[in-house]
Write a structure and sequence with these properties.
The protein is α/β, with parallel strands linked by helices and 155 residues long. 52% of the residues lie in helices and 10% in strands. The protein has a 4-stranded parallel sheet with strand order 2-1-3-4, sandwiched between helices.
């Protein structure tokens, strides 16, 4: 399974959780450089005949990319390929505006708050490294929040 993420911070967070749960060999994570670039990686995956899913934040950028993917590619096919960090499907743009959620919202808040001077990618990388070195254990809350994503990946 190939999982396309919106960016590097998403990549590091997903890799950290997969590693922590000993699932790193089941999913290959491909980071995009922002939501507007996800469609390029999707095109490559389709062209190469690869099995893939797309993880999008439940926010305006994720909504725009969802609309782009379902408009320019087979909409029904893509709806089965897209996972949102809140483990739900979009119903409307107003839902996104009312209840936005990014991958940072499902990570241990204390970890993110420990590094206010760092940007989100470096915080995510620190978590990934700490999990790999077994110096950090994910909270039950984070594991539970990732459960919906992992279920949709069938891992």
């Amino acid at each position: 399974m190939n999982l396309i993420t919106e960016g590097m911070s998403d990549y590091y967070y997903v890799k950290a959780v997969l590693n922590y749960l000993s699932l790193e060999d089941k999913v290959y994570v491909l980071p995009s450089v922002g939501a507007p670039n996800v469609n390029r990686l999707v095109s490559i995956m389709i062209g190469w005949g690869c099995d893939f899913k797309v993880l999008l934040d439940f926010d305006r950028e994720g909504w725009r990319e969802y609309k782009k993917l379902t408009k320019h590619l087979d909409a029904e096919y893509m709806r089965d390929k897209i996972i949102f960090v809140n483990s739900k499907n979009f119903t409307s743009q107003s839902e996104v505006n009312d209840n936005p959620m990014t991958i940072e919202d499902i990570i241990d808040e204390d970890l993110v708050n420990d590094y206010p001077e760092l940007d989100k990618t470096l915080i995510a990388k620190r978590l990934y490294e700490a999990v790999n070195e077994s110096t950090y254990k994910l909270s039950d809350s984070t594991k539970e929040k990732f459960k919906g994503i992992l279920e949709q990946l069938d891992v």
